[in-house]
Design brief:
Elements: H1 4-19, H2 26-96
Helix pairs in contact: 1-2
Length: about 100
Amino acid sequence: MASRGEYKAAFWSEADSIMSFPADTKRDVQKHEAEARRRIIRMKDKLRMGISNLWRQRFAEIKKENDDLEKALKEEFESAMREVRAVGADIIERLEK
């Protein structure tokens, strides 16, 4: 996962790539600023998609682990209950003799 510094570097890289162009007029500067903002927004959207994909991936892993644990718990619970019934039936059988 990216750090705050890596985000800053990605945004500045996008902005710097356009802001370093020569500008002779106020209008040139404004056009460069507008393009830099568009590039930063596109980068933010790209990074956000990466975060979302990572979240979905990790959620899927956690969900699978949870499902496996729940299944194991259920199976062992049922096994323990069968064992208790079997032992109880055996004890009752011996008492009746």
